[in-house]
Amino acid sequence: MTSVHFDWRRTERSGLPEAVFCASKSADQIGEIVNLALGRKHSLLLTKLTEEAFEGLAEEIRARLDHDSLSGTAILDCGLAPATEKGVCVVAAGTSDMPVAAEARRTLGFHGIDAPLVCDVGVAGLWRLMERIDEIRRHRVVIAVAGMEGALFSVLGGLVPGLVIAVPTSVGYGVAEGGRAALKAALASCVPGVVVVNIDNGYGAAAAAVKIEALRGAQ
After folding, report:
1. Is 126 contained in some domain?
2. Is 22 part of a structural domain of the chain?
3. Closest by CA position to 70, among listed 56, 50, 87, 89
4. Could you give the C-alpha distances from 155 to 120, 134, 140, 180, 196, in angstroms and in order?
5. What is the Cα–Cα distance from 147 to 175, expressed in whole angstroms?
6. Structural domains of the chain, count
7. Each residue of 120-138: pLDDT tens digit?
């Protein structure tokens, strides 16, 4: 008897398929979901799958998954369409924010969006951001990923015409530890139109961008 009850028809209701959140699942549970998906020829996105957890999966399951250790994601491809650029980019303040930025980018790719990545443009060296700002401004949706004090969110919000989705990360120490300073900075931004997802939630930011692009395409 199966121990999981996966939502195979979520796309029909909400526009996005269920992703497999792996952080609290056993190797057997993950393997069971993958096998069920294989039987249905149903592509899967797995998130928060660490290298250690991936190595704990059965060899035949690992062989079917495209695992990326940086983002902690894995993809079961049962016929995904090639990703193309669709007006979304990911901007990361520093290389320490890359795991969350990579999660957002991999999620976008799973949903058919090839999002350029602009990395290491934190406001401590504002010239780095200004060198890339024209490139960033060309996109309708900008997923901004930053820890510490999260200043990048307001700076980008004041410079780009597109929607800024702020993703605070748990990068930091002292009062910034755990990402709460960046989260509060994003929520308290004086720039109108900046929206915020939870700490380290690259997946959630990408899911929002996917819905925005889908609505645009339906017009």
Report:
1. yes
2. yes
3. 50
4. 15, 14, 16, 19, 14
5. 11
6. 2
7. 988 888 889 999 999 999 9
